[in-house]
Amino acid sequence: MTNFKKKSESADSLRTFCGFSKKLTFFLLLAIYSVLFISCTFPVRTGYDRKIGDYKPVPSEQNSPEQTAQAVQSSEPQQARTNIATTAKKDTAKAVRQNSPAKARAAINQKEVARSAPKKSTSLESAINPWLGTRYKLGGTSKSGIDCSGYVMVIYKDVYGISLPHNAATIYKDDRGSSVSRGSLKEGDLVFFGDFWGISHIGIYLNGDRFTHASTSKGVMISPMNDKYWSPKYKGARRFR
């Protein structure tokens, strides 16, 4: 009986010790968790600096991820506004640059078209002056050489916009022209010269009883209608205007 009682007391003591050990273990784990939680939650404390009388500032690279994210988020709207303003300025400047050269190019193109377009002479004399002295060339139609019908053809097209054939006799017979008497000649009328065989020369009548023509000997020139060489060869006149 005595042995059984001793064994029972030993078992009770063992259970009491085990219960105390479990409680002690629980409190130790709770203390460890508390220390770990506090060390992770509170900011890092740097060493005390006697020169400044306070703790040293935390280096920027030790900022928490939350602080870094907040800094990035706060800077994003400002950066976006800055980018929008910069883009708007660039677009405005680009539009101004594009519009100004476009207007300048349009003005230049208009001037070039005006220069390249065929100019209608304001008067017959102003049209023939650049041709005076051009050498005679049979079949020619340019300032490097021109014949009498080619000269009349070019001047009439330039001044009056009328196309004529490149042949004096054919022009004389052209139905578009009407016959004009010697005393009724007006500036621009076509005058014809020839011999027994027919029409061989043509010119354009000018005020002052003169006419301009391309002579075989002197090229483009102005001669009086009563010239001793041409007056006897006069065959008639035609008006195409």
List unreliable stretches of 5+ residues: 113-121
| Nearest-integer average pLDDT | 76
Number of helices: 5
Per DSSP E runs of 2 or more residues, the count of β-strands stands at 10
Overall structural class, as computed from helix and strand content, comes to: alpha+beta
For the CA atoms, what is the radius of gyration? 57 Å
Strand order of the largest sheet: 5-10-6-7-8-9
Along the chain, the helix and strand elements come as: HEEHHEEHHEEEEEE
Could you walk me through the main structural features you see in this protein, from its secondary elements to its overall organization?
- A hairpin with a 4-residue loop joins strand 1 and strand 2 (54-55).
- This protein is rod-shaped.
- Helices cover 48% and strands 18% of the residues.
- The chain is an alpha+beta fold.
- The strands form three sheets. A six-stranded antiparallel sheet has the order 5-10-6-7-8-9. A two-stranded antiparallel ribbon has the order 1-2.
- It has helices at residues 2-41, 65-116, 124-128, 148-159, 168-173, and strands spanning 48-49, 54-55, 141-142, 145-146, 178-180, 190-195, 198-206, 210-215, 219-224, 234-239.
- The longest helix has 52 residues, at 65-116.
